[in-house]
Amino acid sequence: DGGITQSPKYLFRKEGQNVTLSCEQNLNHDAMYWYRQDPGQGLRLIYYSQIVNDFQKGDIAEGYSVSREKKESFPLTVTSAQKNPTAFYLCASSMTGNNSPLHFGNGTRLTVT
Amino acid sequence: GENVEQHPSTLSVQEGDSAVIKCTYSDSASNYFPWYKQELGKRPQLIIDIRSNVGEKKDQRIAVTLNKTAKHFSLHITETQPEDSAVYFCAGPYSGAGSYQLTFGKGTKLSVIP
User: Fold this and answer.
1) What is the mean pLDDT of residues B70-83?
2) d(CA A106, CA A92)
3) What is the DSSP letter of A70?
4) In whole angstroms, what is the distance from residue B65 CA to residue A45 CA?
5) Is A63 within 8 Å of chain B by CB?
6) CA atoms within 13 Å, Cβ hemisphere of A58
7) Which residues of B touch A68 (CB under 8 A)?
């Protein structure tokens, strides 16, 4: 839907386990982003990548890791170091440069118990 | 980085009335201001955006106004309908260290009462 696919839609993990969220896009966008959404907190940027094999930390990168080996893919790993991993995770992509709107995936709701 | 503040956090209006959501930003170099609508359990979707070379943009029942001097921009929805009920986010661009990213407001939950 919309050219960006996130999977799975719901994900459950036990505390202490790493988990990887998938994000694939076929929009030929160079830039990709991961946001975390919590109630009343809006969208907070975790990591972003403007080009293959390069990525930068966002505002809340601690406890997360990413890779960008292919233009189409930007997986996010939630590590055991993330203190409060339960959240709704949104992946997005855009053309590079300023003034480019973001296109979002449908999100993955991660629950860690 | 950019700091975007959005008000109100919740807004209830009667069907047919207008709704206004306001955002302020801190970076005077910001030049692109999108608005996203997120329905319950769904992804945010761009509904309208404005660039700094214009003061107002309209698209049917929605409009966005920009005041660069005061550093605020607003979303206006006229003749509200129940399907307008959603969370609305504003965003401002942040360009730092040669990179580009959007900073989002915390959102406004709009409820349109039939």
Assistant:
1) 96
2) 9
3) B
4) 26
5) no
6) 25
7) none
